[in-house]
Fold this sequence. Notes:
Radius of gyration: 18 Å
Number of domains: 1
Strand content: under 5%
Largest sheet: none
Number of strands: 0
Number of helices: 12
Order of helices and strands: HHHHHHHHHHHH
Shape: globular
Distance between the termini: 59 Å
Amino acid sequence: SSNLLAYAAAGGAAESSSIGASALGLRIADYLRSSRWPDEAIVFALATLPVLELRGAIPVGYWMRLNPLLVYCLSVAGNMIPVPLVLLYMEQLTTFLTARSSSARKVLDSIYKHTRRKAGPIQEFKWLGLMLFVAVPFPGTGAWTGAMASVVLGMPFWSSFWANFFGVAIAGILVNLLVSVGFNTALLVGAALFAASTFMWSFLRFLGRS
């Protein structure tokens, strides 16, 4: 099978230069391809993984020359797979591990503290805050973090699930845009997203005070 890393290094298409941060996703995809995984299954599997999620899966789908709509659907579906599992079983798993290992307790305490620091907008605006938190495709703002934050904050299951779903759907559209427009334009779009998100939170806080 063709080597994805060699293809990405060779350049050529605009999308192959637009997501340099997907090296890990490319390595995993190259390994799975050598194991004869179908390209569609690789994209789906990458989207389920923490850290990679949509940001890693969609660029790989473009490098594989899959249909963009198919890549979008596979990535959104894969990214949503961990959400109900985290919502349903995170507390039970935390209780189980902390009761058996002091090291696990320290690690989980650190994860909870980090999640609480990230969850400020979610705590402030609940459903809308969670949806927008997941929708903006910046590092540390994906479905995994959103699902964990909603558990830490005690949000209801279905409210958390649908907020994550709509956030993932919007994030998929944004990442598709970023991958397809090329690196320089992606930088401009990223800066615009950062500015828009800053304005959005300021506006929501103003409405909350009003």
